[in-house]
Structures are given as C-alpha cells and as structure tokens.
Design a protein that fits this description.
Elements: E1 10-11, H1 17-42, H2 47-75, E2 87-88, H3 96-102, H4 104-127, H5 132-146, H6 148-159, H7 163-194, H8 196-206, H9 209-234, H10 245-262, H11 272-297, H12 302-325
Parallel strand pairs: 1-2
Length: 326
C-alpha cells in the first residue's frame, strides 16, 4: 500500500449484487435528507421552492422503500452498511452547507446534477445484476431519475407558477445584492479610492518602487481588515435582512484589499515610471469596473455613477500626486 493512501475503498466493479442494492438504498436516503435540508433552508424566504424540494424528498423515500423491499426479497432484512465514501471513484455530493450559502439557483442546479448522477448509477448497477427482478427495478429507477427533471419542472409549475417564481427570483437576487454585492462594492470603492492618495503620494515623494509597494500593501491590507470588521459588526442582519454578518464582512474585507492591491502591485516592477504608468492604467480599470457594478447591480444611472466614481477617484489621485510631488 502506498503511504498516505487508504486501501479501504472498494471498486464499484468488485461490489456484490447485495452491496449494490445496499449502496442504492443509502444513496436514496442521503438524497432525501439533502432535499429536506434544502427545503428547511428555503422555507422562510422561498416557501414555494421549499415545497418542490419536499416532494422530491418524498419521491426519494419511495425509491428507497422499493429498494429495501427488493433487498428483503433476495437477501433478507439485514442491509450491509455501504455508502458513497466507501466506493473508489464514486461521485460525491457537495457539502450541504456550501450549497446553502450559494443560494437558491445553486440548490436547483445541484438538484439537477444529483438526478443525473443517480440515473448514471442505476444504469451501471442494472448492468451488474443477473436477477431479472432487480434488473427491472434498477432500470425503472434509472428511467425515474432521468424523468426527474421533467417532474421537477412539473412541481415548479405547480408551486412556482408565474408570480411565485418571479417573486422568489427577485427575492433571491435582492438577498444576493444585500449580502454580497453591496458590501463588496463598498469595499472595492474604499480600497480603490482611499488608497490612491497614500500610494501615489509615496510614489512621487520617494520615486522608490519598493517603498511605494510596502506602503501600498500596508494600506490595502489594513483597510481590508478595518472594513471587514466594521461591516460585520455594524449589523447582525436580523432586522435589516442583509444576511450573515460574516459573509458581508468577508465580502467587504476581501474586495477592499483587492481594490488597494490593484494599484500597489505594479510597484513590484523596479523601474519607477513603468510601474507608475501601469498603476495608473489599473486605477482607470478599477474605477470603470466600479461604475459597471453600480449600474448593473445597484441600478445607479450610468452617468451618475461615472460622475461619482471617476471624478472622485481622479480628485483623490490628483491630491496624492500633488502632495507627493510637493
């Protein structure tokens, strides 16, 4: 055995027919639990989508019972313990907490992928069994999983018709903007604009790229930490509905740091004027990126966003150059 690698995982081709049925049973149980967790997570904000996932979980329960009945018929009531993680090369489910944090559309997309993987599993499992009844059941389950996207579509039409779907999509977009875009945009603006003056003042005062780089790194990282903690501590999100303070703090802190680093990193170049010209180009790109984000996600009129961001950034840049050159 190679050090550091476990030999406990079985190959799918080595599983017995009883173990394949046991694996299918545990798969259906796991998928039903995942759908119910999705439903619970969505129940308050997206009740119609929660009902869709609840019914999908109910279907997985029915499939599991069919598989248990088939196992009992052939092998008795004692089902071997075998799960996805016991089989080498087997598809893995994304952690539920990760999908929950990425929002409604990601949950819907993950559910579609789960059904596709389940269909593939049942087709391979059917090829491995010699019993006619088991083969028929696994084939029926493969067909059922293949048809789940149609079933999901029917459930969405039932619970998410017209206004309900539009309302949930609008709510999800609003939550995404409040939790991620708004704090991130504030951080990007602060990191890009507030660090202009100290970085370019240092650059023109010293004409030393190394010193400018150190000042830029300190300003960017310091501003990122400050903005991140400030955003996280300012609002717990319970009353405002802005979402997790941790998420908002991470978004704001990371984007603040990125905004400051953008025009500090060019000073890794040892030639002062080359580094400065590249830094100015980066500033130009940063400011127009902020204008685009404001216009796309915050519905800020383009010319108003341009006036606020580009003019403000230009003034801060000019102040830094004048202070450093004086």
């Amino acid at each position: 055995m190679i050090p550091g690698f476990s030999s406990s995982r079985r190959r799918f081709s080595d599983l017995s027919e009883q173990e394949i049925l046991a694996l299918a049973i545990s798969n259906e149980e796991d998928d039903a639990r995942i759908y119910r967790q999705y439903a619970e997570r969505l129940r308050e904000d997206f009740p119609a989508s929660a009902k869709v996932f609840e019914e999908m979980a109910h279907e997985e329960d029915e499939h599991r019972q069919w598989l248990i009945d088939e196992h009992t018929r052939r092998f008795g009531s004692v089902i071997p313990l075998i799960r996805r993680e016991h089989v080498a090369g087997y598809f893995a489910r994304q952690p539920v907490w990760l999908i929950e944090n990425l929002g409604l559309e990601r949950m819907r997309g993950e559910a579609r992928e789960m059904e596709r993987q389940a269909e593939q599993f049942y087709r391979k499992a059917a090829d491995r069994t010699s019993d006619a009844g088991t083969r028929r059941l696994l084939g029926d389950l493969a067909a059922a999983e293949a048809g789940h996207n149609d079933t999901a579509g029917q459930l969405e039409q039932k619970y998410l018709g017209g206004e309900a779907r539009e309302k949930e999509d609008d709510s999800a977009r609003r939550q995404f903007i409040l939790t991620w875009v708004q704090p991130g945009l504030a951080g990007l603006m602060d990191g890009s604009v507030s660090t202009l003056a100290p970085i370019f003042a240092t650059a023109f005062a010293t004409r030393d790229p190394h010193t400018t780089l150190l000042v830029g790194l300190a300003a960017a990282v310091g501003a990122g930490i400050s903005m991140g903690f400030t955003e996280a501590a300012s609002d717990d999100g319970e009353l405002s509905g802005r979402g997790s303070p941790l998420k908002r703090g991470v978004s704001s802190g990371v984007m603040t740091t990125v905004g400051g680093l953008g025009h500090a990193l060019p000073y890794l170049i040892t030639d002062f004027w080359t580094a400065t010209i590249i830094a100015i180009i980066v500033v130009f790109v940063e400011l127009w990126a902020i204008v685009w984000i404001q216009n796309k996600f915050m519905d800020t009129p383009f010319f108003r966003a341009t006036f606020q961001v580009v003019l403000g950034g230009a003034l801060v840049f000019a102040a830094g150059v004048l202070i450093g050159g004086g």
